[in-house]
Amino acid sequence: MLGPVILAASRSDRMRRLVSAAPVTKQVVDRFIPGETVDEVLPIVRELTGSGLELTMDVVGEDITTPEQAAAARDAYLELIDRLGPLALGTRAEMSVKLSMFGQALPGGHERALANVRPVVEAAAAIGTTVTLDAEDHTTLDSMFAIHEELRKDFPQTGCVIQAYLFRTEADARRLAADGSRVRLVKGAYKEPAEVAHQQKHEIDKAYVRILRTLMEGEGYPMIGSHDPRLISITQELARTAGRKIGEYEFQMLYGIRGDEHLRLAAEGHRMRVYTAYGTDWYGYFMRRLAEKPANLRFFLRSMVSK
Ligand code: FAD
Questions:
Q1: Domain spans of the chain?
Q2: Which residues form a coiled coil (predicted)?
Q3: Residue pLDDT, tens place only, 69-78
């Protein structure tokens, strides 16, 4: 019940100001967002890759309102890629980007987001890695998929995300599986209306398994973005049935969630990628993490009261 309320708050400017100014927020935020600058996050990159994990890096931010902010987002990724280059991690450290942060919702937003994201994809390719386009709310997805298709003409490894809760996703998955795309499948983290999305957890989980089967049986590279133990074991079964070996798909989880499981899967030889977000504009990302697990919110509120 709490999830939708928190997701609604994640879009409220008033809540953003309140939560961001709370004195104890930072220590709770740090669990999910281990730094505000490239300098703060690079030691984490070294630590995680040193333990056999792979990374997808997210400079937090979304829903920007000016072209200057969109250009700044592009530049923040370019700086990150510049600093990752000397570590020579190749695809062990890729980028995740939200197109809303690149100006997708501004006038002329589709073209602007494409123009801003292209140099990031080019810079990533120049250091031997790639970019995955995150999925945001359903109104943005036609544009995201069109940008994905456009980028793939020059950079076929560019990935995208699909969300099991949306009705449209089974068709999207068939198309992406047939054209050999890198696709991250997640349950979906936004507040979506019943006209476009499953609302019940068990319906979302069933859709996830159907879509996962499509991806496993297709030509592309499936990336399983979930912490759900049941889906992790179903993934391994479906991979076996589809004749995929370890390394022909990968697991992905968020930094700060089920860290032991990251290491367990990596130790079993799986490709295990940790989505590592950093930056100052963490509010939307943080609120979605609270919405996913009400215990996180209780912890957050308790730490505010105990100060
Ligand atoms: P759940 O059923 O939600 O969780 C399973 C178990 O995982 C829980 O019981 C709990 O133990 C643990 N867990 C899950 N979430 C939390 C949490 N916040 N705090 C503590 N424990 C938790 N969504 C999008 O809409 N677009 C994206 O582009 C996107 N990218 C993602 C990238 C990655 C790598 C991952 C892992 C998720 C991404 N998500 C994205 C979020 C996703 O949609 C889900 O909201 C999120 O992963 C929770 O779903 P779950 O599959 O882990 O299953």
A1: 33-281
A2: none
A3: 999 999 999 9
